[in-house]
């Protein structure tokens, strides 16, 4: 079998005009030379020599091309342009593979997919009715925009495959037009969205890319389930919902705060409850068992209110020591934290833990109402036990440091600023798998969100950031995100009910770090903060304008009357110190909303964008880069990635050399302390590990007024201590962040490097010495794909 | 001196704090076999060609006993003669890690080889598979060379011990295991056997530390007794490396045969020579072969990884975290 074609029956057609006596190695050499043409700093002959050196008997042309791709893609750390060469070879491979299934055009790819029962009838009818016009929309040359890893990701997981042969039935551009057609009502619309996709300016989230136009068009990324009620039937009903949602590639957030704690009396049997851990173990197994269409494992995050009496056991669920019977290795964990807890941490006070069976009211309260009810329950002596608030907070920090999990999300901030919580019956009980969605839930309504992200890097030129183009992109994006609400297939009735009522969408962004690199701004500079905030404001205003316009055309979302916007309060109004630069436009949109309402109750959420940023070849969402040279691990292999901006700048200054390259790899992608690299580059190319985390929080806080849901904000500490973490998360809460995401840290030891020169015994290495705390470790943070 | 006979029990003042640091770092990276998910490997194995089947069966047969041999030498030779309580702390920790590796490979074999007879054969590979027997014999020869010494009294004793230490670090952990890991990463580069690769990442990380510890012992002895490292010693190390490369190469010929996509005996030879050169350089000796690394997938092991949590379990987190709640620290 071969790695590229995941099937032995993959057929390749021979390109035309070949001399019959040419062997496969000679043919690949020729193709390499053709593809390398016009690529600066690429040496096709070197690759040819390497292939010839590693020949094995019976090597076919396809296998040798695969080898050529492997060699060129591993060379990107020396010369990033090899990524393009690898991508061109892969594009040729895909073209051969699809041709073997008779696919040579968009319409023939639709025909082939349809013949195999993969597509929705209305999509096929739409394409058939507009065949010639749609074929003309395809821009075959757009494939050349892909870097290798992006194209490889598309090939491995997004292109539709033949059910038996497992060969792909679409080329990348056909896939993008199929996605666009699945959401469109006319050729013009399809072309409008296709242009955004094919230029990698905007990408909808993975479920939409996977499923648009197919028979099961589950297009939503995130599902938020309220806690099961404190009853057996309700708990099992939730498992079933989770399984159905998970099957169709949705990421799950689920609260568990209503379920009674350990030791609570069970009246029916006169026994005592074992608390929430055994239930979560079952959830853990259930999530692991559901394989998302063979594409990935299911994933879920459990939210627990910090007053729940099982909180301490909850925080240990991901430990890899202790009793394995009380561990859940597949679940992610998040803390749902009221302000009262943080205040008591500040005051070094006591914190009471309750059994929700005794205090069921706490789950549905926030703000002053919660504070009063909580204190009343304390006064009534209902607490199961009291702990030092700082001790519990310290445990939360320990869990973050040891597992990256136990995300800190703030329930009062979330509810206070949400558009959905104007009425007391509407309460946000949790965030989602990636902590960027905040929507109300109840027993019969499962919150849903459809996501998409603007590639900010594509909107940046040397002249600066193109706000005009951003506006166009956002207008199109919002229109199509709104459309997905009506077109999507909902795996559960609870999800459909909530989504049609609230019509929330989550428009986010990616590539912010690329914008800073292109414009030569340090991540923690005042200019970067101002630009990042202005971009967030622009995305928000255009989204609100577009949603208001859609409301005028199609009507407001059904329960608009229950929102703060209906009462005249917009998200920005919660932030007196918001950096508004578009005051007049906000006034205008406020007037429009007053007249027609909003089509969508929520619009902005910054998802982690792990996979779609890979496709687009940009940095993830709003994040700094973790390294200037790193690898991505996926189900289909490992892929080397480099910071192209850095290498371009080093080349421009004539600094790029083998010695510098090795120094950066030895330093695990850091440029700090490398003598050859000038100070300004060292400053701008600091990695996430080297930036002050205060700056990440400040950027996020300045952006918050324009994010009506939330943002997936990872924080980084190479060597975390309880002291550093407790200060950092307290600052995040004080700064008004609604949620935070992973705490990334690094292991204490690493694999010895094999391909850079080994340091000789007792001799100082030729390379500049890197401080041990930066160079010491291999790192491997997790990143999220459900939302993207 | 570090190799002086005796049972030093004094941790304070600490003579070799670097050993203690290595011990603490090792603890931070504790992992457990239960964290490795081998389920998807079975699907891959079912689709393997006979040639790939042969390779993976040979490979797991080597893994079945490799770490046990290393653990034995640690107890029988290293622990006895490295006379430093902090050094012995590290070795105790290493022994635990070897046990976890043995458990991992036991689980792996039980999963990969459902037929009990085949399993038994795999664990007996040191006797019945010639290409593995030859490697095992090499190991046993070097275990035995130091086994009879109760104390390292003379310079000759110490050289014998150093050769044993260097053999296990440079040849067995640093070459036999490095060779084996290359097959795993080769398969992984083709999207195969993700579970094995995950466990291997962790084993590889541990083995890297074991090697580093052994080399830091060598460095220390060199500082204390430079006269031990004479021309004779150099010749013996080179001869030992050559023998190890030879042994690993005939293992490669058995595994690879005529070659597979991206994996040929010629490339493997070059890789082994390249790895062996690196060990020599680490020991302050000139390169012997001057070969290049031909495997692009090994270059990937040198850089930070970003794991998508839908796909693989991330491993970056530390087990021991220090400090207490403080709201005014810099971060």
Automatic annotation (TrEMBL), chain A:
<dbReference type="InterPro" id="IPR008926">
    <property type="entry name" value="RNR_R1-su_N"/>
</dbReference>
<dbReference type="InterPro" id="IPR039718">
    <property type="entry name" value="Rrm1"/>
</dbReference>
<dbReference type="Pfam" id="PF02867">
    <property type="entry name" value="Ribonuc_red_lgC"/>
</dbReference>
<dbReference type="GO" id="GO:0005971">
    <property type="term" value="C:ribonucleoside-diphosphate reductase complex"/>
</dbReference>
<feature type="domain" description="Ribonucleotide reductase large subunit">
    <location>
        <begin position="586"/>
        <end position="608"/>
    </location>
</feature>
<keyword id="KW-0560">Oxidoreductase</keyword>
<dbReference type="GO" id="GO:0004748">
    <property type="term" value="F:ribonucleoside-diphosphate reductase activity, thioredoxin disulfide as acceptor"/>
</dbReference>
<feature type="region of interest" description="Disordered">
    <location>
        <begin position="1"/>
        <end position="24"/>
    </location>
</feature>
<dbReference type="InterPro" id="IPR013509">
    <property type="entry name" value="RNR_lsu_N"/>
</dbReference>
<comment type="function">
    <text>Provides the precursors necessary for DNA synthesis. Catalyzes the biosynthesis of deoxyribonucleotides from the corresponding ribonucleotides.</text>
</comment>
<dbReference type="GO" id="GO:0009263">
    <property type="term" value="P:deoxyribonucleotide biosynthetic process"/>
</dbReference>
<dbReference type="GO" id="GO:0005524">
    <property type="term" value="F:ATP binding"/>
</dbReference>
<feature type="compositionally biased region" description="Low complexity">
    <location>
        <begin position="1"/>
        <end position="15"/>
    </location>
</feature>
<dbReference type="InterPro" id="IPR000788">
    <property type="entry name" value="RNR_lg_C"/>
</dbReference>
<comment type="similarity">
    <text>Belongs to the ribonucleoside diphosphate reductase large chain family.</text>
</comment>
<dbReference type="InterPro" id="IPR013346">
    <property type="entry name" value="NrdE_NrdA_C"/>
</dbReference>
<dbReference type="Pfam" id="PF00317">
    <property type="entry name" value="Ribonuc_red_lgN"/>
</dbReference>
<keyword id="KW-0215">Deoxyribonucleotide synthesis</keyword>
<protein>
    <recommendedName>
        <fullName>Ribonucleoside-diphosphate reductase</fullName>
        <ecNumber>1.17.4.1</ecNumber>
    </recommendedName>
</protein>
TrEMBL record, chain B:
<comment type="subunit">
    <text>Tetramer of two alpha and two beta subunits.</text>
</comment>
<feature type="binding site">
    <location>
        <position position="101"/>
    </location>
    <ligand>
        <name>Fe cation 1</name>
    </ligand>
</feature>
<feature type="binding site">
    <location>
        <position position="173"/>
    </location>
    <ligand>
        <name>Fe cation 2</name>
    </ligand>
</feature>
<protein>
    <recommendedName>
        <fullName>Ribonucleoside-diphosphate reductase subunit beta</fullName>
        <ecNumber>1.17.4.1</ecNumber>
    </recommendedName>
</protein>
<dbReference type="Pfam" id="PF00268">
    <property type="entry name" value="Ribonuc_red_sm"/>
</dbReference>
<dbReference type="GO" id="GO:0004748">
    <property type="term" value="F:ribonucleoside-diphosphate reductase activity, thioredoxin disulfide as acceptor"/>
</dbReference>
<keyword id="KW-0560">Oxidoreductase</keyword>
<dbReference type="InterPro" id="IPR012348">
    <property type="entry name" value="RNR-like"/>
</dbReference>
<keyword id="KW-0408">Iron</keyword>
<dbReference type="GO" id="GO:0009263">
    <property type="term" value="P:deoxyribonucleotide biosynthetic process"/>
</dbReference>
<dbReference type="GO" id="GO:0046872">
    <property type="term" value="F:metal ion binding"/>
</dbReference>
<feature type="transmembrane region" description="Helical">
    <location>
        <begin position="161"/>
        <end position="186"/>
    </location>
</feature>
<keyword id="KW-0472">Membrane</keyword>
<keyword id="KW-1133">Transmembrane helix</keyword>
<dbReference type="InterPro" id="IPR009078">
    <property type="entry name" value="Ferritin-like_SF"/>
</dbReference>
<feature type="binding site">
    <location>
        <position position="67"/>
    </location>
    <ligand>
        <name>Fe cation 1</name>
    </ligand>
</feature>
<feature type="active site">
    <location>
        <position position="105"/>
    </location>
</feature>
<keyword id="KW-0479">Metal-binding</keyword>
<dbReference type="InterPro" id="IPR033909">
    <property type="entry name" value="RNR_small"/>
</dbReference>
<feature type="binding site">
    <location>
        <position position="207"/>
    </location>
    <ligand>
        <name>Fe cation 2</name>
    </ligand>
</feature>
<comment type="function">
    <text>Provides the precursors necessary for DNA synthesis. Catalyzes the biosynthesis of deoxyribonucleotides from the corresponding ribonucleotides.</text>
</comment>
<comment type="similarity">
    <text>Belongs to the ribonucleoside diphosphate reductase small chain family.</text>
</comment>
